[in-house]
Amino acid sequence: MDHYGYEAPSCLFDDHRFLPIRERATGAVLLAAKSVVLLSSFLGSRPLNKCCGLWFQRNDQSKTAHVLTSAHLIREKDPSVKNHWKLQWTGKYHRGAEVNVHFLDKRVVPGQLVYLQENYELALYEVEVNKPVQLPTFNDCVRSGQDVFRLGRDENLDLKITHGMTAYEVPSWYERCHYMYFCRDASSRKLLDDDGGPIIDLEGKVVGLVNNHINETFIPSSILHKCFDFWRRFDCMPRLHLGMTFTSIKHLDPISIERMTRDHNIESGLIVEQVSKGSHAEKIGIREGDVIESFNGKYISTTIELEQMLIDICWEHFDQGKDLYAEKDVSVKIFDAIKHRRRTRNLTVIVSDLGEDIVKGTYPIMGKEAMPVS
């Protein structure tokens, strides 16, 4: 702590590697920080959680603004998990929890829950404001391996800054694979409690929102924007529940990609990691290791592209006057990993804004004829 009473310096000042970009990065952090606030939740007198949040919309006429944050703000953690590094928010969402928004001038104002999106683990809160708030600038073009900073705030509202890189890969034990992953510097060992905080680029633009600091995943801005547009038009943020999780061929080792192209004429697509037991995907014969080459005739190379397409299909669904929790058919082109043949099937999916739980089945690839992908 220095003579002003501040904590130790951030990574920008205690790491000589940042000397070439220190001035630029400092400007980027200070610009984005104007939009980052702290939120706290309570159940009666019992503290529940603290998360960061991001101003994303304001109405100067009604003197209100909306804060985007992680749904973990009002969700219980699983008390049965003793390992803090694997602790999951798997408990109940407390929609009626009291939530306070901590302004940077030390004011504390109650927030009202406007919308909760369980699958993306997002929550929107409306707050009364007596002066305009600073809205962030977004950048939808985030790439794997990009230099970024993750911002958060501690209980004193001081900034927490972590340097890292973005990646498409997520831990194999984390089921929702449409997120991107924040790879911290090896020197940054402390686990930061900054759910709801932004991931920013070197221009101070938001490229994503942290939705799980333990798994270190974030939602890319391209998906956030589609969710915002949907919510403004239809008052909800739906997606299609496919009953599957995937790994992108694009992010395999080049040796594996070349082998798949040479042996099976497969250059891109999504490898099925899990098929939910009892799902329609299981009923039409999709199994772990199969490759989904296209959805509705559109070839998809990453799970982010898939997620954007799923939201677009939901938009068409709502434009046709249809509602949430309805079934919809999607055409999928499948490469069978065991029989080594292609087929096209109609997959019945659910339009929902609830979280999608993948129930593990018992259908691993068996036999010598399975397609090697590793």
TrEMBL record:
Q: Where is the PDZ domain?
A: 271-310
What's a BP term from Gene Ontology annotated to this protein?
proteolysis
Q: Which GO terms describe its molecular function?
A: serine-type endopeptidase activity
Q: One Pfam family this chain carries?
A: Trypsin_2
Q: Which family does it belong to?
A: Belongs to the peptidase S1C family.
Record's protein name: PDZ domain-containing protein
Please tell me the species this chain comes from. Aegilops tauschii subsp. strangulata (Goatgrass)
Q: What is the lineage of its organism?
A: Eukaryota, Viridiplantae, Streptophyta, Embryophyta, Tracheophyta
